[in-house]
Design goal:
The complex is a heterodimer of chains A (362) and B (431). Chain A has eleven helices and 13 strands. By secondary structure, chain A is α/β, with parallel strands linked by helices. In chain A, the strands form two sheets. A seven-stranded mixed sheet of chain A has the order 6-5-4-3-2-1-13. A six-stranded mixed sheet of chain A has the order 7-8-9-10-11-12, with no helix packed on it. Chain B has a two-stranded antiparallel sheet with strand order 1-2. In chain B, helix 3 crosses helix 17 (402-418) and helix 4 (75-94) crosses helix 6 (110-140). Chain B has one domain. The chains are: A alpha/beta (362), B mainly alpha (431). Bound molecules: fe (ii) ion (2 copies).
Chain lengths: 362, 431
């Protein structure tokens, strides 16, 4: 009995002591204790130089035309973890689609004026439906520039169907165009580049790639030319894709401009990483491209966290589109964020964001 | 369940009872007397691999994105898994296997009673989800509890299924935290003298009532912000936003998961210590409940801190590894990963060791479980993509280690609660 009592009071006393000490230190937030035990963060900033000016033209941000059709394809295949190359995507009979095909695609054409007066031309991504992408490439003069070998860089942000599978539209005009892909590309992605077809997913490449393939590392900043760099993020993404890369530009007298494909890493994560790794990264002037918030017009309270937090970064221009989603853009507008509006042309559905054929100039 | 020593060593049993007070109420699982058909470690390994094999088969058929039913999208499949768990807890702990007689449970071969109990488990799970939530509550009360109803009011079919899945599974998650506290900490006080099914229905009613309150306070506000525009007339603004730095209910999912796991760590490897040293009810029960909460918060904060140390702090609005709400959720996942080695030790390796003083036994088991958690965590992230059809990496928003781990745990419960751990063990015939 006495032993019981002493054991009991010992355990009681010990646990109360531990409890009081622990909670006094920790609180309930995730970062409170961290701040006490970790040294201040170290910045490891790379100087990427400067560009004079930047123009981003949206070639296509309409990746698919009927959201319900796309989601039913995904649901029928078994959800968002299923390998994209094994999904029978709906390619005809879609009223809202391009000639009945639900597939559109994503691509952005970028011109950067360098300090020495020259201009670099970049094609970011190559869409999904080659017919649609070729039409857009022709309409915006990209096809001609490809054929004349005037495109300096062809960058694939990530392996997603809507950014990469329209590669015939690029390779038809220049199969020798060097390509930059992020670390994490799967074998299927490289095979497709070489000319393999995936009949179930209705994707093929009749123009095998003959240029160089650069796989961009995720451990460091990858400079492209003065004032421009690429950053790769390691992460698994829906439809069994891994890794995404995006642009960091440093525009003289303006600040940092981030240009993304889908931004699966999240725009806040991207800005925080840039702040730590790029000289001048604290001052984000503009962001352009897909911000992957509500691509399927779905929602999650986490996305509200993102929109509430965006206001703290002092961004001057948000040229969002594509997988940013209309709900997210509407919420940004009501949160008084500086969303750049568009002109609702070339099959873009609304004018609240930058659409097909619109340009953001910095 | 707590005092039972499966190796049948009488000495150990006596030593244990010396240090604590008699329980008011015991369930059949605690009284069930088992003999070993095989020696260790063969028996432990056999049980471990049997449960793993059945888990893999069931995963492939029902959940695997490359498999047959492909329910792991992930919320839809996870919903079923969480309900299988709570229904198993109700069957064994709350209803003490009623309407089956103790005699029948003892005399029926595990290969006969196992499928019967599992069949009941699946039938109740299906009925609750499809009739209780999808039809009754969804149609006549709250559409977000129902896949078909949410779809009918305009949500895409895929997300209707996912959103409803999360809501329905959270009810089970909260119930599987609260329900076992009654038989475990309160020993069903003050209803310990009731017979089944009166006792079962009483405890079920009380814990379900508590579950309703906890759900509406800790999870319903998540649905205020989930729909566009914010549903401010139907639900409160997530009140945890300031301290949690997220509007997401994952903040509560995280610590409630830690609570669920705390219950079972206390029940298994910690043998209900230290609150069982308290002499009378309801004090023992109240202390037990406080202890569960305390252990849960310790786990939650420790796991949050470990992630901060590993990846750096999360920031508001971050995604993936840097999303505050994902961190909380992942703390819950780490807690679930802790339960797996604990149950393997408890069910398959006789809750070793038992030969030292209680403190030492508990401390050694805790160390084994902590080391086991790290090992399992490492192995999980190495081999889950080929094995489970998931994707490599930690932060994929459409996958939760909780789901496969809990399904494996459910299989272990089927094996040990419904089938006496057969063929490694069987019911003592001379009883
Ligand atoms: Fe995209
Ligand atoms: Fe994408």
């Amino acid at each position: 009995m006495a032993e019981d009592f002493s054991r009991r009071s010992f355990i009681k006393g010990a646990s109360l002591g531990v409890a009081a000490g622990y909670f006094a230190a920790a609180g309930l937030s995730s970062t409170a204790l961290y701040k006490q035990v970790m040294p201040a963060e170290k910045l490891n900033q790379t100087d990427i130089g400067e560009v004079k000016a930047l123009r981003m033209k949206v070639i296509s941000e309409t990746s698919w035309y009927d959201n319900n059709v796309l989601l039913n394809d995904l649901k029928g295949a078994g959800g968002l973890l299923v390998n994209q190359y094994t999904i029978p995507w709906t390619s005809n009979g879609v009223a809202a689609g391009y000639n009945g095909n639900n597939a559109g695609g994503f691509a952005t054409y970028i011109e950067a004026d360098l300090m020495d007066g020259s201009t670099k031309r970049i094609l970011l991504d190559t869409g999904w439906n080659p017919a649609w992408m070729e039409k857009r490439f022709i309409e915006e003069g990209v096809a001609e520039k490809l054929a004349k070998k005037q495109i300096d860089y062809w960058i694939i942000s990530h392996e997603h169907f809507d950014h990469y599978w329209g590669l015939e539209a690029t390779l038809k005009y220049n199969p020798n165009q060097d390509v930059y892909v992020p670390k994490g590309f799967y074998t299927e992605g490289f095979d497709l580049l070489k000319g393999k077809a995936f009949p179930k997913a209705q994707v093929k490449n009749d123009f095998p790639h003959k240029g160089k393939v650069h796989v961009m590392d995720s451990s460091k900043v990858n400079p492209l030319f003065p004032g421009a760099a690429l950053m790769t993020f390691d992460m698994p993404i829906i439809c069994r894709v891994f890794g995404e890369q995006a642009f960091v530009f440093n525009v003289k007298d303006k600040g940092i401009v981030l240009v993304t494909g889908c931004c699966h890493m999240g725009i806040i994560t991207y800005m925080e990483t840039v702040r730590k790794k790029i000289k001048g990264g604290e001052k984000i002037y503009a962001v352009q491209g897909g911000l992957h918030i509500s691509p399927f017009e779905d929602w999650d309270p986490q996305y509200d966290d993102l929109i509430l937090a965006l206001n703290k970064y002092g961004i001057q221009k948000i040229g969002a589109n594509h997988c940013t989603g209309f709900i997210a853009v509407e919420k940004m507008i009501s949160a008084k964020l500086p969303v750049v509006t568009g002109t609702k042309r070339n099959m873009t559905k609304r004018d609240i964001y930058l659409g097909n054929g619109d340009t953001l100039a910095v | 369940m707590t005092t039972k020593t499966y190796d049948g060593s009488a000495a150990t049993q006596e030593m244990e009872t010396e240090h604590h007070y008699e329980e008011l109420d015991k369930i059949w699982l605690e009284e069930r007397s088992l003999t070993n058909s095989l020696a260790q470690p063969l028996r432990g390994l056999l049980g471990f691999f049997l449960s793993f094999g059945f888990f893999m088969a069931l995963w492939y058929v029902t959940m695997d994105p490359r498999g047959i039913l492909q329910w792991y999208t992930p919320m839809y499949g996870y919903m079923y898994i969480r309900w299988l768990l709570i229904v198993a807890i109700w069957q064994a702990y709350i209803f003490n296997f009623w309407p089956f007689k103790q005699k029948w449970m003892e005399e029926t071969h595990p290969l006969v009673k196992g499928p019967i109990m599992i069949g009941i488990n699946w039938a109740i799970t299906g009925a609750i989800i499809w009739i209780g939530f999808f039809w009754l509550i969804g149609k006549y009360s709250i559409p977000y509890f129902s896949w078909p109803e949410l779809h009918k009011v305009g949500m895409t079919d895929f997300f209707a299924r996912e959103y409803a899945g999360l809501a329905v599974l959270m009810v089970a998650a909260i119930a599987s935290w609260l329900a076992p506290i009654w038989p475990m900490a309160f020993e069903n006080y003050p209803w310990h003298k009731l017979t089944q099914p009166a006792k079962g229905f009483t405890v079920l009613s009380l814990t379900s009532l508590l579950t309703i309150f906890v759900y509406f306070i800790f999870m319903h506000p998540h649905y205020m912000v989930l729909f566009y525009p914010w549903q401010k007339f139907a639900a409160a603004m997530p009140w945890w936003y300031e301290s949690a730095k997220t509007l997401s209910g994952n903040y509560n999912v995280g610590w409630i998961m830690c609570g669920t796991i705390a219950v079972w760590l206390i029940e298994t490897i910690w043998e209900r210590y230290p609150f069982r040293l308290i002499k009378s009810q309801p004090w023992r029960g109240l202390a037990g409940f406080a202890w569960v909460l305390f252990v849960a918060l310790i786990m939650f904060n420790t796991f949050n801190l470990m992630q901060d140390l590993a990846w750096g702090p999360a920031y508001e609005g971050g995604k993936r590894l840097y999303a505050p709400d994902w961190r909380y959720l992942h703390s819950g996942e780490l807690a679930v990963m802790m339960l797996l080695p604990a149950l393997v030790l408890y069910f398959y390796f006789d809750n070793w060791p038992k030969k030292f003083s209680t403190e030492v036994n508990l401390a050694i088991r805790t160390i084994i479980v902590v080391v086991g958690t790290f090992a399992f965590n490492f192995i999980y992230y190495q081999i889950s993509p080929p094995l489970l059809g998931t994707q490599p990496g930690y932060s994929h928003p459409q996958q939760f280690p909780m789901a496969p781990v809990i399904l494996w745990i459910v299989i272990m419960l089927y094996h040990n609660w419904f089938m006496d751990g057969w063929p490694g063990k069987r019911i003592k015939k001379d009883k």
